[in-house]
Design goal:
CATH topology: Aminopeptidase
Strand content: 25-35%
Number of strands: 7
Radius of gyration: 16 Å
Amino acid sequence: MTIRPLEKEDGSALQAFLQSFPSGETAFFRGDAFATSRIGDWIRPDDPLHFVATDPSGTIAGYVAVTPRSGMSAHVGEIALVVAPAQRGQGIGRALAQTAMIAAFRGGGLEKLVVEIAAVQERTAAMFRSMGFAPEALLVDHLRDEAGQRYDLLVLCHHVASGWADIVTLGLDQALDRT
């Protein structure tokens, strides 16, 4: 698996990747974080915060983005991560999340990262917690799927100041140099 920055040529492949998810899964896609109509806006050479994981054939297996917030929260970036169902459990999500974290901390000028997920996504929450993210909020019945089922929203955060030394000590800051 190769993790690399999103490139202009990835537009149609990324659109196909995102549209391949069943509606039960897309219910947990956050707002328009994965809106295929916005793909053209994501692919900018000056934006180092969008990455894809591709298999040896070049097929996209995962995507991650860090979106800086604005105004008084301009120091905060939100992570959006998705991995193809058939590729889960292979470390792709973790590798993408680590790459995004490093890019955000290294060159994104961000001081805090947040990820918002449905509380029922326990494996995803466990992965982020193992990477130093801590629960910050639980919003009860905050999400509702197409069938009307309600879910709690879990907000996890990672502060750069408390975690960057650990990232450097583990050598994870070199991850971008290897992609």
